[in-house]
Specification:
By secondary structure, the chain is an alpha+beta fold. It has helices at about 5-15, 50-60, 155, 215-245, and strands at about 30-35, 40-45, 80-85, 90-95, 105-110, 115-120, 130-135, 140-145, 175, 180-185, 200-205, 210. A hairpin with a 5-residue loop joins strand 7 and strand 8 (about 140-145).
């Protein structure tokens, strides 16, 4: 994320704290993902943490890897992708480390071992250069994305946030014989309002990571919604300025 984007998102988090929803992040665990046709399985194993508290303390002090359990040999997350054989047994195709810090939040695996797609980072949904990562049939990174790579910064600023995350989308899926990823991006919302918002679609071609930007009436509606939410944010910022005697006033 560039410096301007980081500053703006930090300011948004500061001004919207009163409306941010609480987070609950249990320690990550090993998770299986199966392709829609049942031919392929991805097992994602997280980096092993001592505790949430130690992770947060290490992050605050700049210690790396944050929260790592000393006795554990798993010091980075990894994925194992397997193919179902005719006898029903699974045969490993590839096993590689993932570029996430601790673990992705969610994933999709394509049929016939073609792709693995991971979403977000444990405890930091929507942040970082690996909000989405595409891995190919050998476990190599095709492309990784920040939110700003497929959404305008002004739109990101108006998405619903919690104390640790940007809640940017849900229900992503594969189409075109699992060659295309469809992102379902949430419309903006302010505070607790409209938590079950509508979504707009962004298409990503998995072979090379090419993005088809959102367009059409749904996108126009979402942009109008974004402008409305930004007006609400500005009103709150002005109220905070008055209530705190100018402490939060923009210079």
């Amino acid at each position: 994320m560039n410096t301007r984007a980081a500053i703006v998102l930090g300011l948004c988090a500061m001004f919207c704290t009163r409306f941010a929803t609480a987070d609950s992040w249990p320690l990550p665990h090993t998770t299986d993902y199966i392709s829609t046709d049942g031919s392929t399985k991805a097992i994602i194993v997280p980096r092993v943490l001592s505790s949430q508290l130690e992770y947060f303390e290490d992050k605050g002090s700049g210690k790396s890897p944050a929260g790592q359990r000393i006795a554990s040999s798993i010091d980075q997350p990894f994925a194992r992708v397997s193919q179902r054989k005719a006898n029903g047994q699974w045969s490993t195709i590839w096993q590689q480390p993932l570029i996430n810090d601790v673990a992705p939040v969610d994933a999709l695996v394509a049929s016939r071992e073609k792709y693995l797609i991971t979403f977000d980072n444990w405890h930091h949904r929507g942040y970082g250069e690996d909000a989405i990562v595409i891995y190919d049939a050998r476990g190599r990174v095709v492309r990784k994305y920040r939110l700003i790579d497929f959404l305008p910064l002004s739109y990101i600023e108006t998405l619903s946030t919690s104390t640790s995350s940007i809640h940017w989308g849900r229900g992503h899926f594969l189409t075109d014989k699992d060659e295309t990823l469809i992102l379902r991006v949430a419309e903006p919302s302010f505070g607790f309002e409209d938590q079950n918002t509508l979504t707009i679609s962004v298409r990503i071609r998995l072979a090379d990571g090419a993005i088809t930007p959102p367009a059409g009436r749904a996108w126009e509606r979402a942009l109008r919604r974004s402008k409305k939410v930004r007006q609400q944010q500005k009103a709150y910022e002005q109220k905070a300025c008055r209530d705190h005697g100018g402490r939060w006033c923009k210079r």
